[in-house]
């Protein structure tokens, strides 16, 4: 799933190419992706892109009227890439719209600027969770209205107060967008490894020193990743993200800090990775999926 650093990089990339350009056409290949009907997606056509921004893990393409006499001062296209969505920029988009309901990965196509310029919103796999909204204000999107504070907006005191009031496991808290927004599965693994904390530690049980360490790990992990991804083309972002990961998606490989084997805990349709030596005092956490298989 694209998380805060990737979405920030995508927003920067698109803003550098789309700002001040008109939206010429929008092709919808998957009607299920659109979660709103009013304003219609066709209302974006002819409008000018003012900016492309990030709200948590959402891309927000802000538009203004191409005609000053137009009644709608603001209409935004909001995109959440979910687990398998991505942006694919092109300067040679096919003039023929993608076939609605086709088996390909394209869900939405936005033409802007010169003929051929624009991007596809794609989604791999069979679990279709990609979502797009056309709204007058991003807060009309229920998920955005219910977001917790952006994790990088919190100072140490606010971060500590949030943890002190929660009995949740720290892994759960970091990835709960209603509590903190911006962190997903991959970077929460990296943050907890950097902070040398068990994913199962209870948030309110952390002492001041542990909270200090975790706060610093959150900021350093996300800021470092954001800076590494800045300025890269969309085709390079995924590979560059992987180069910075120390434990996430590295099951069975040696921990780059201590050399122990990176381990995994699986549950439902998700999993997380950790280093027992660095994070749990050598204790191997029970893998619930393996426990079920052994019964």
TrEMBL record:
Sorted alphabetically, the keyword list is:
DNA damage, DNA repair, DNA-binding, Glycosidase, Hydrolase, Lyase, Metal-binding, Multifunctional enzyme, Zinc, Zinc-finger
On the tree of life, the source organism's domain of life is: Bacteria
The reactions it catalyses are: 2'-deoxyribonucleotide-(2'-deoxyribose 5'-phosphate)-2'-deoxyribonucleotide-DNA = a 3'-end 2'-deoxyribonucleotide-(2,3-dehydro-2,3-deoxyribose 5'-phosphate)-DNA + a 5'-end 5'-phospho-2'-deoxyribonucleoside-DNA + H(+); Hydrolysis of DNA containing ring-opened 7-methylguanine residues, releasing 2,6-diamino-4-hydroxy-5-(N-methyl)formamidopyrimidine
SMART domains (alphabetical): Fapy_DNA_glyco, H2TH
Location of the Formamidopyrimidine-DNA glycosylase catalytic domain: 2-102
One Pfam family, please name it: H2TH
Q: What InterPro entries does the record tag this protein with?
A: DNA_glyclase_Znf_dom_DNA_BS, FPG_cat, FPG_N, H2TH_FPG, Ribosomal_uS13-like_H2TH, Znf_DNA_glyclase/AP_lyase, Znf_FPG/IleRS
Cofactor dependence is on: Zn(2+)
Residues covered by the FPG-type domain: 246-280
Family from the record:
Belongs to the FPG family.
Provide the protein name: Fpg/Nei family DNA glycosylase
